[in-house]
Amino acid sequence: MNAKMDTTDACDLRFGQVGIACVRVRRVDAAALCDELERRVRAAPQMFARAAVVLDLSHLLNLPDDGAVDALLEAVRSAGMLPVGLAYGTSETEALAKRMGLPLIAKFRAAYEPAQGSAPAAEPATRAEPAPAVQREPILSAPPPGSMQGAQHHAGSVRSGQQIYARERDLIVTGAVANGAEVIADGNIHIYGGLRGRAMAGAQGDGKARIFVSDFRAELVAIAGQYRVFEQIPDDLEGQSVQCWLEGDKLLIAKL
């Protein structure tokens, strides 16, 4: 008797939001890059250890040669991160990516050019850092691209390991965001509960976006490509109702 042929597909292929961070290179110095990334990994190992990263060379005056790029990629690996591609740039960058056998990731471009928003004066948090560029596959459906739409609502808590992404709209969460959970929006984020995980507003580069939290205990907050990691919440902010916004390249946090 002939064996029955297995007609099951060998795999599924899907495109979605992915958790990839961005390393924006400002000078071609592999040793300095490794030292800086090692510092970031030590400061927030749960965030950055073995994080998938894209190398952005667009802010260099001249594109490095293949050997220099190899050294930068090895510096990222030595620091404990995993380079997975190059960020979108020029046709020369595309050719470089092909020679290096790396994918070219185009979606980061918007996050590199955040709009500059204005906001009321307040005491700033420490200087913001360039943000990891979001996102794992969202657990909620998102509307198609277009103009900013009405807010997306999530009733209840967001559990550890879950992510909510509101595309082209604000996000309102009427519950707590647990440690290890992420809430992301292209617009503003309103959390009517405790934030113990991560909140990232203005995900596509809107520097005017804000984050509002009823009970602030965050791991990370980010707006339009700038972020702040909290190893310890400042005493005057812990458990308080706060708002977060950008002023230039500084992420400001103030009690409501």
From TrEMBL:
Keywords: Cell cycle, Cell division, Septation. InterPro entries: CAP/MinC_C, MinC, MinC_C_sf, MinC_N, Septum_form_inhib_MinC_C. It comes from the Bacteria. Residues 14-83 form the Septum formation inhibitor MinC N-terminal domain. Coiled coil: none annotated. Residues 138-159 are annotated as: Disordered. Residues 156-253 form the Septum formation inhibitor MinC C-terminal domain. PANTHER family: SEPTUM SITE-DETERMINING PROTEIN MINC. Cell division inhibitor that blocks the formation of polar Z ring septums. Rapidly oscillates between the poles of the cell to destabilize FtsZ filaments that have formed before they mature into polar Z rings. Prevents FtsZ polymerization. HAMAP family: MinC. Belongs to the MinC family. Interacts with MinD and FtsZ. This is Probable septum site-determining protein MinC. It comes from Rhodanobacter soli. The lineage of its organism: Bacteria, Pseudomonadati, Pseudomonadota, Gammaproteobacteria, Lysobacterales.
